[in-house]
Amino acid sequence: MYRKMAPKFETLVDADEAVRKLADGFLFTEGPIWHPTGRYLLFSDMPGDVRRRWDAEHGVREAARPANKCNGMTYDAGLNLIVCEHATSCLVRETPSGGREVLASHFEGKELNSPNDVCVRSDGSIYFSDPWYGRMPGFGVERPRALGWQGVFRLAPDGALQLVVPRDEFAMPNGLCFSPDETRLYVNDTERALIRVYEVAADGSLRRGRTFAEGLASAQEAGRPDGMKCDAQGNVWCSGPGGVWIYADSGELAGRIAVPEVVGNLHWGGADFHTLFLAASTSLYALRTRATPHIEPFMR
To answer: From CA 171, how far away is CA 174, in angstroms rounded?
Structure first.
Protein backbone atom coordinates (compact mmCIF):
# COMPACT_ATOMS: atom_id res chain seq x y z
CA MET A 1 0.00 0.00 0.00
CA TYR A 2 2.85 2.40 0.77
CA ARG A 3 6.19 3.02 -0.91
CA LYS A 4 8.61 4.92 1.29
CA MET A 5 11.27 6.89 -0.59
CA ALA A 6 12.49 9.15 2.24
CA PRO A 7 12.47 8.92 6.07
CA LYS A 8 10.00 11.81 6.46
CA PHE A 9 7.28 9.69 4.85
CA GLU A 10 6.73 8.01 8.24
CA THR A 11 5.84 11.37 9.78
CA LEU A 12 3.08 11.86 7.21
CA VAL A 13 1.39 8.47 6.96
CA ASP A 14 0.95 5.61 9.43
CA ALA A 15 1.78 2.32 7.67
CA ASP A 16 -0.90 0.59 9.76
CA GLU A 17 -3.67 2.83 8.40
CA ALA A 18 -5.61 1.48 5.44
CA VAL A 19 -7.29 3.32 2.58
CA ARG A 20 -11.01 2.85 3.25
CA LYS A 21 -13.77 2.90 0.65
CA LEU A 22 -16.64 5.14 1.79
CA ALA A 23 -18.94 4.82 -1.22
CA ASP A 24 -18.97 3.66 -4.84
CA GLY A 25 -21.14 3.36 -7.93
CA PHE A 26 -20.31 6.78 -9.41
CA LEU A 27 -19.18 7.62 -12.95
CA PHE A 28 -16.13 9.81 -12.20
CA THR A 29 -15.61 11.63 -8.92
CA GLU A 30 -13.82 14.96 -8.57
CA GLY A 31 -13.52 18.16 -6.55
CA PRO A 32 -13.78 17.01 -2.89
CA ILE A 33 -14.08 19.86 -0.38
CA TRP A 34 -14.78 19.68 3.38
CA HIS A 35 -17.13 22.12 5.09
CA PRO A 36 -15.38 23.03 8.38
CA THR A 37 -18.51 23.85 10.39
CA GLY A 38 -21.13 21.67 8.68
CA ARG A 39 -18.77 18.67 8.92
CA TYR A 40 -19.59 17.26 5.49
CA LEU A 41 -17.78 16.64 2.23
CA LEU A 42 -18.98 17.84 -1.16
CA PHE A 43 -17.74 16.14 -4.31
CA SER A 44 -18.76 16.09 -7.94
CA ASP A 45 -19.76 13.13 -10.08
CA MET A 46 -18.83 14.99 -13.21
CA PRO A 47 -20.10 12.84 -16.13
CA GLY A 48 -23.26 12.16 -14.12
CA ASP A 49 -23.81 15.93 -13.81
CA VAL A 50 -24.52 15.70 -10.08
CA ARG A 51 -22.91 17.11 -6.95
CA ARG A 52 -22.97 14.83 -3.95
CA ARG A 53 -22.55 15.23 -0.22
CA TRP A 54 -21.06 12.76 2.26
CA ASP A 55 -21.08 12.79 6.06
CA ALA A 56 -20.42 10.11 8.63
CA GLU A 57 -24.02 9.93 9.82
CA HIS A 58 -25.95 9.82 6.54
CA GLY A 59 -23.41 8.62 3.99
CA VAL A 60 -23.90 9.91 0.45
CA ARG A 61 -26.79 12.12 -0.64
CA GLU A 62 -27.40 14.29 -3.69
CA ALA A 63 -26.65 17.98 -3.19
CA ALA A 64 -27.37 19.33 -6.70
CA ARG A 65 -28.67 17.96 -9.99
CA PRO A 66 -27.93 19.18 -12.60
CA ALA A 67 -24.59 20.60 -11.49
CA ASN A 68 -23.21 21.99 -14.77
CA LYS A 69 -20.71 19.10 -14.71
CA CYS A 70 -18.79 20.87 -11.97
CA ASN A 71 -15.19 19.89 -11.23
CA GLY A 72 -12.91 21.60 -8.69
CA MET A 73 -14.48 23.30 -5.69
CA THR A 74 -13.30 25.26 -2.66
CA TYR A 75 -14.64 27.83 -0.19
CA ASP A 76 -13.70 31.45 0.29
CA ALA A 77 -13.24 33.03 3.72
CA GLY A 78 -16.99 33.65 3.97
CA LEU A 79 -17.75 29.95 3.29
CA ASN A 80 -19.20 30.73 -0.10
CA LEU A 81 -18.63 27.79 -2.45
CA ILE A 82 -16.34 28.52 -5.41
CA VAL A 83 -17.08 26.13 -8.27
CA CYS A 84 -15.42 25.30 -11.60
CA GLU A 85 -18.16 24.45 -14.10
CA HIS A 86 -17.28 22.43 -17.19
CA ALA A 87 -20.64 22.73 -18.93
CA THR A 88 -20.77 26.54 -18.76
CA SER A 89 -17.02 27.33 -18.90
CA CYS A 90 -17.56 29.50 -15.84
CA LEU A 91 -16.07 30.02 -12.42
CA VAL A 92 -18.97 30.72 -10.07
CA ARG A 93 -19.66 31.60 -6.44
CA GLU A 94 -22.59 30.00 -4.60
CA THR A 95 -23.74 31.57 -1.35
CA PRO A 96 -25.05 29.57 1.62
CA SER A 97 -28.51 31.02 0.92
CA GLY A 98 -28.54 29.60 -2.61
CA GLY A 99 -27.38 32.59 -4.65
CA ARG A 100 -25.19 32.07 -7.72
CA GLU A 101 -22.77 34.61 -9.19
CA VAL A 102 -20.57 34.15 -12.25
CA LEU A 103 -17.05 35.29 -11.34
CA ALA A 104 -15.26 34.57 -14.63
CA SER A 105 -16.46 33.36 -18.03
CA HIS A 106 -14.36 35.16 -20.69
CA PHE A 107 -10.82 36.41 -21.22
CA GLU A 108 -10.07 39.08 -23.82
CA GLY A 109 -13.60 38.66 -25.15
CA LYS A 110 -13.31 34.89 -25.67
CA GLU A 111 -15.01 32.18 -23.66
CA LEU A 112 -12.79 30.30 -21.22
CA ASN A 113 -12.04 26.65 -21.97
CA SER A 114 -13.44 25.03 -18.81
CA PRO A 115 -12.24 26.09 -15.34
CA ASN A 116 -10.94 22.91 -13.73
CA ASP A 117 -9.42 23.41 -10.29
CA VAL A 118 -9.29 26.36 -7.93
CA CYS A 119 -7.71 27.75 -4.75
CA VAL A 120 -8.19 30.96 -2.75
CA ARG A 121 -5.42 33.13 -1.31
CA SER A 122 -5.68 35.02 1.98
CA ASP A 123 -6.03 38.36 0.18
CA GLY A 124 -9.26 37.10 -1.38
CA SER A 125 -7.84 36.49 -4.85
CA ILE A 126 -8.81 33.27 -6.62
CA TYR A 127 -6.47 31.21 -8.82
CA PHE A 128 -7.77 28.60 -11.23
CA SER A 129 -6.61 26.39 -14.09
CA ASP A 130 -8.38 26.37 -17.45
CA PRO A 131 -7.67 23.27 -19.60
CA TRP A 132 -10.22 22.12 -22.17
CA TYR A 133 -11.42 18.88 -20.57
CA GLY A 134 -14.87 20.36 -20.15
CA ARG A 135 -15.25 20.59 -23.93
CA MET A 136 -14.72 16.85 -24.31
CA PRO A 137 -17.61 14.34 -24.38
CA GLY A 138 -18.51 12.92 -20.98
CA PHE A 139 -16.46 15.27 -18.85
CA GLY A 140 -18.32 18.29 -20.17
CA VAL A 141 -20.21 19.44 -23.24
CA GLU A 142 -18.50 18.83 -26.57
CA ARG A 143 -18.05 22.11 -28.42
CA PRO A 144 -15.31 24.10 -30.22
CA ARG A 145 -12.63 25.92 -28.25
CA ALA A 146 -12.41 29.71 -28.38
CA LEU A 147 -9.04 30.47 -26.75
CA GLY A 148 -6.82 27.88 -28.44
CA TRP A 149 -4.49 27.61 -25.43
CA GLN A 150 -4.77 26.50 -21.79
CA GLY A 151 -3.92 28.99 -19.06
CA VAL A 152 -3.81 29.65 -15.33
CA PHE A 153 -5.68 32.73 -14.11
CA ARG A 154 -5.94 34.99 -11.09
CA LEU A 155 -9.22 36.67 -10.25
CA ALA A 156 -8.32 39.75 -8.19
CA PRO A 157 -10.52 40.90 -5.30
CA ASP A 158 -11.74 43.77 -7.52
CA GLY A 159 -12.90 41.29 -10.17
CA ALA A 160 -10.08 41.80 -12.67
CA LEU A 161 -9.07 38.60 -14.47
CA GLN A 162 -5.35 38.16 -15.12
CA LEU A 163 -3.43 35.48 -16.99
CA VAL A 164 -0.55 34.63 -14.63
CA VAL A 165 1.52 32.22 -16.76
CA PRO A 166 2.65 32.42 -20.40
CA ARG A 167 0.00 31.12 -22.79
CA ASP A 168 2.00 28.10 -23.89
CA GLU A 169 3.51 27.22 -20.50
CA PHE A 170 1.16 24.25 -20.02
CA ALA A 171 -0.33 21.62 -22.29
CA MET A 172 -3.08 20.80 -19.76
CA PRO A 173 -2.85 22.78 -16.49
CA ASN A 174 -4.83 21.03 -13.80
CA GLY A 175 -4.33 20.86 -10.01
CA LEU A 176 -2.92 23.84 -8.11
CA CYS A 177 -2.20 24.72 -4.49
CA PHE A 178 -0.34 27.26 -2.35
CA SER A 179 2.52 26.62 0.02
CA PRO A 180 1.59 27.23 3.69
CA ASP A 181 2.96 30.79 3.62
CA GLU A 182 1.43 31.46 0.18
CA THR A 183 4.77 32.54 -1.27
CA ARG A 184 4.70 29.68 -3.79
CA LEU A 185 2.03 28.34 -6.10
CA TYR A 186 2.29 24.80 -7.45
CA VAL A 187 0.54 23.93 -10.73
CA ASN A 188 0.62 20.54 -12.40
CA ASP A 189 0.37 19.59 -16.06
CA THR A 190 -1.54 16.36 -16.66
CA GLU A 191 -0.40 15.87 -20.24
CA ARG A 192 3.29 16.53 -19.57
CA ALA A 193 3.21 14.60 -16.26
CA LEU A 194 4.96 17.29 -14.22
CA ILE A 195 4.53 19.92 -11.50
CA ARG A 196 5.75 23.51 -11.84
CA VAL A 197 6.25 25.96 -8.98
CA TYR A 198 6.14 29.77 -9.04
CA GLU A 199 7.02 32.56 -6.66
CA VAL A 200 3.98 34.65 -5.76
CA ALA A 201 4.76 38.38 -5.83
CA ALA A 202 3.19 40.91 -3.47
CA ASP A 203 0.69 41.92 -6.16
CA GLY A 204 -0.35 38.31 -6.71
CA SER A 205 1.47 37.84 -10.00
CA LEU A 206 3.65 34.77 -10.56
CA ARG A 207 7.34 34.79 -11.44
CA ARG A 208 10.41 32.56 -11.73
CA GLY A 209 8.48 29.45 -12.72
CA ARG A 210 10.44 26.22 -12.76
CA THR A 211 9.87 22.50 -12.91
CA PHE A 212 9.36 21.16 -9.39
CA ALA A 213 8.83 17.47 -10.22
CA GLU A 214 8.47 15.48 -13.42
CA GLY A 215 7.97 11.91 -14.56
CA LEU A 216 4.57 11.41 -12.89
CA ALA A 217 3.64 8.82 -15.51
CA SER A 218 3.92 5.05 -15.78
CA ALA A 219 3.35 2.40 -18.43
CA GLN A 220 2.41 -0.08 -15.69
CA GLU A 221 0.09 2.00 -13.50
CA ALA A 222 -2.81 4.23 -14.48
CA GLY A 223 -2.94 7.83 -13.30
CA ARG A 224 -1.40 11.22 -13.98
CA PRO A 225 -1.03 14.51 -12.08
CA ASP A 226 -4.51 15.86 -11.39
CA GLY A 227 -5.68 16.99 -7.96
CA MET A 228 -3.01 18.42 -5.66
CA LYS A 229 -2.82 19.78 -2.10
CA CYS A 230 -0.11 21.09 0.23
CA ASP A 231 0.10 19.99 3.86
CA ALA A 232 0.98 22.07 6.92
CA GLN A 233 4.68 21.22 6.58
CA GLY A 234 4.85 22.28 2.94
CA ASN A 235 4.84 18.80 1.39
CA VAL A 236 2.97 18.48 -1.90
CA TRP A 237 0.43 15.63 -2.26
CA CYS A 238 -0.44 14.96 -5.90
CA SER A 239 -2.47 12.30 -7.66
CA GLY A 240 -0.30 10.17 -9.90
CA PRO A 241 0.22 6.66 -11.23
CA GLY A 242 -1.14 4.12 -8.78
CA GLY A 243 -2.54 6.63 -6.29
CA VAL A 244 -1.01 9.64 -4.50
CA TRP A 245 2.63 10.84 -4.71
CA ILE A 246 4.06 12.96 -1.88
CA TYR A 247 6.91 15.41 -2.46
CA ALA A 248 8.91 17.33 0.12
CA ASP A 249 9.11 21.08 -0.53
CA SER A 250 12.65 20.43 -1.80
CA GLY A 251 11.21 18.40 -4.68
CA GLU A 252 12.35 15.05 -3.23
CA LEU A 253 9.80 12.24 -3.59
CA ALA A 254 8.99 11.17 -0.03
CA GLY A 255 6.68 8.28 -0.86
CA ARG A 256 3.58 6.97 -2.56
CA ILE A 257 0.16 5.80 -1.38
CA ALA A 258 -1.51 3.05 -3.40
CA VAL A 259 -5.22 3.53 -4.12
CA PRO A 260 -7.38 0.88 -5.86
CA GLU A 261 -8.63 3.36 -8.49
CA VAL A 262 -7.21 6.37 -10.35
CA VAL A 263 -7.32 9.39 -8.04
CA GLY A 264 -8.83 12.52 -9.53
CA ASN A 265 -8.54 14.84 -6.54
CA LEU A 266 -8.03 14.94 -2.77
CA HIS A 267 -8.76 17.08 0.26
CA TRP A 268 -8.35 16.86 4.01
CA GLY A 269 -11.32 17.01 6.34
CA GLY A 270 -12.87 15.44 9.39
CA ALA A 271 -13.24 17.05 12.80
CA ASP A 272 -9.46 17.41 13.21
CA PHE A 273 -8.48 17.60 9.52
CA HIS A 274 -6.54 14.34 9.72
CA THR A 275 -8.74 12.51 7.19
CA LEU A 276 -7.61 12.64 3.58
CA PHE A 277 -10.60 12.20 1.26
CA LEU A 278 -9.82 10.76 -2.18
CA ALA A 279 -12.14 11.20 -5.16
CA ALA A 280 -11.04 8.21 -7.21
CA SER A 281 -12.89 7.33 -10.40
CA THR A 282 -16.06 5.43 -9.44
CA SER A 283 -15.54 5.64 -5.68
CA LEU A 284 -14.86 7.85 -2.68
CA TYR A 285 -12.05 6.77 -0.32
CA ALA A 286 -10.60 8.06 2.95
CA LEU A 287 -7.28 7.67 4.73
CA ARG A 288 -6.34 8.75 8.23
CA THR A 289 -3.01 10.64 8.02
CA ARG A 290 -0.50 12.03 10.46
CA ALA A 291 -0.25 15.08 8.23
CA THR A 292 -2.82 17.88 8.20
CA PRO A 293 -3.48 20.51 5.51
CA HIS A 294 -1.98 23.95 5.54
CA ILE A 295 -4.59 26.37 6.85
CA GLU A 296 -6.57 27.87 3.98
CA PRO A 297 -8.68 31.02 4.48
CA PHE A 298 -11.96 29.10 4.86
CA MET A 299 -10.52 26.92 7.65
CA ARG A 300 -9.80 29.84 9.99
So the answer is: 10
3-state secondary structure of 97: coil
Q: Domain limits at 163?
A: 2-299
Amino acid letter, 26: F
Per-residue pLDDT of 82-137, as tens digits, reads 999 999 999 999 999 999 999 999 999 999 999 999 999 999 999 999 999 999 99
d(C-alpha 198, C-alpha 184), whole Å? 5
* Beta bridge partners of residue 40, listed in sequence order: 35
Residue 187 to residues 35, 251, 253, Cα–Cα distance (Å): 24, 13, 17
Residue type, 106: H
What is the number of domains present in the chain? 1
Q: Establish how many alpha carbons lie within 13 A of residue 152's alpha carbon, considering only the half-sphere containing its beta carbon.
A: 30
Tell me the residue type at 245: W
Question: Containing H/E element for 45?
Answer: strand 40-45
| Coil, strand or helix at 56 | coil
The C-alpha atoms of residue 293 and residue 124 are separated, in whole angstroms, by 19
Residue 149 half-sphere exposure toward CB, CA atoms < 13 A: 12
Residue 229: give its domain's CATH number: 2.120.10.30
How does pLDDT run across 36-52, given as a tens digit for each residue? 999 999 999 999 999 99
3-state secondary structure of 9: helix
Within 8 A by CB and 6+ apart from 83, the residues are: 68, 70, 72, 73, 91, 92, 93, 94, 118
